[in-house]
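Re: the 519-residue chain
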Amino acid sequence: MKKIIIPFMMLPFFLSGQHLNIRIVSQNTPNEPSIAINPLNTDEIVCGYNTEDAYYSTDQGNTWTYSKLTSTYGVMGDPCVIADHLGNFYFFHLSDADAGSFLDRIVCQKSDDVGATWNNGSFMGLNGTKDQDKEWAVFDFKTKNIYVTWTQFDRYGSSSSADSSLILFSKSTDLGETWTVPKILSETPGDCNDDDNTVEGAVPAVGPNGEIYVSWSGPEGIVFDRSYDEGETWLDQDIFVNEHAGGWNQDIPGIYRCNGMPVTICDTSNSPYRGTIYINYSDTKNGENDTDIWLVKSTDGGNTWSNPKRVNNDSPGKHQFFPWMAIDQVTGYIYIVFYDRRNYDDNQTDVYLAVSKNGGEHFVNYKISESPFTPDPGVFFGDYNNIAAYNNVVRPVWTRFGTSYPNDYGLSIWTAIIDLETLNIFEKPKLTEALEQNYPNPFSAQTFISFKIKNHEYISLSVFDVFGKEVCKIIDHELYRPGKYVESFNAASQQLQAGVYYFVLTLGTKKQTKKMLIN
């Protein structure tokens, strides 16, 4: 954990808004950010972006450190970052191998040190001269499998009727070391123009019992497919979900290129909405000058779908675009981030967060960017923004364009430290001081110790043996703000023998103690 110190350079942002805006990067024209939170330790967050770059944070996104990806398979954009059950992070991207053709495969690179370093990677989808594009991945915490879906082009950008696009699927059962031969999911192929009649936007989701769900957009609108056997078999006929009014390729003034492709997620939490499948997208059903954000859902495994629910709650006539959705799989709350122009009559753009705690029936909208920006139509913004949420830690990421030199000039990527206390739709429980049992317990090498504090406190956290001798000091009288914290403890690095030990949390004059067992 980090001490509660606000760097001087961040102070103006802290004072100017409800949700602290943090600039992650502004070098090398970054765009298409993707973000993931370690579910074992929500302090650890990784953000990837175009084309070969990542930043990682160990303090919930307040500060960031750069890391660069290299691979013999090439690194060529469309970043997708996910985390697994062990705290490993995965960075999926397109390829540009020296010995292959452009976009000849999908690459997966893995980090076991919170994104500081990445392996050379593995790959899927290599298929002669065909092009592999716009992949997305999901980790299944039940089966421990990784699932990836993407678009295969016979020849990217081809207008020939002989060339088509398909949705493909592959999985890894060994944490990204190897990948299965791809399966074709799309019943109806699309063209290769990278436009409304191309099949694109396949984002896989997993259900509570290992189900796999995915939707995409193309010549038939938004369609849906599923598998109940870890991707071995799929529906014989894709299920029609909804028309995609105006298509997924949308014209937004001032934006070089914009899409409203669907994002699919399933609630695997223990909330009342467990098992509900959601699809989030944008379209122009209310007119070409009124792009809106929508949500549809299914409570029967995708057999039937609700009528679209409008997510943005402004008056008609303004553009909302580039949405992405996350579900906090602890609480079941839905978070959707998007660009929004409700406050302006020109191309000035804010970033909004829509939140639902009742299964998407009602959304509350919050402006989370501290100042608007005006995009340059000649500058490529990428094809998406992103958001991650876990156990009440919510981190959206977006691309911004500024014209003020040097502090806000060109493209940059930002996140917001979402303050749940300002999202007053939540019935936020009172925080009580508590030291929780370590997990796992017993353990042989590493365990995690969690505690909550309700006030700003100077705290200490130490480990003692059965004779009362202090054998390790994890935190030494450091100032922490109210919240929940998770500390890792490695008994092997302390050369501790097997046996019974105690960890003690000290808050002022108060002490709390728990027993733990090292195998």
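Confidence is low (pLDDT under 50) at residues 1-17, 425-431.
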